[in-house]
Amino acid sequence: MFSCFLYTKPQFRKRGIAGELMKLLLTESRNKDLDFVELKATDAGYPLYKSLGFEDVVSKYHDMKYIIDSRNNF
């Protein structure tokens, strides 16, 4: 598994930077014979990823996390 984080500073958004980076990543993924690329999109990034061909994933699983601090006692 390979992890990558993509973030564009607000002053540089809407210039096609993230789209071009994603296209490079997808091309490299194809060249490496990967089976899929999976991501978690923010509301702001969602339209970009949809336009690149990403599809919504329906799963029987839920993303969850447990915050460990003094208030969480079971």
In short:
The chain has 74 residues and is mainly α.
Could you characterize the architecture of this molecule?
It is extended, with a radius of gyration of 16 Å. By secondary structure, the chain is mainly α. The N and C termini lie far apart (about 35 Å). The chain contains two helices and no strands.
- Number of separate helices: 2
- Quaternary structure annotation: single chain
Radius of gyration: 16 Å
Percent strand equals: under 5%
Mean pLDDT, all residues: 90
Q: What order do the helices and strands follow?
A: HH
What share of residues is helical?
A: 25-40%
SSE class: mainly alpha
Task: Please tally the β strands and state the result.
Answer: 0
Shape: extended
Largest sheet: none
Low-confidence stretches: none
The separation of the N and C termini measures 33 Å
Topology:
Elements: H1 17-31, H2 46-51
Features:
mainly alpha, 74 residues, 2 helices
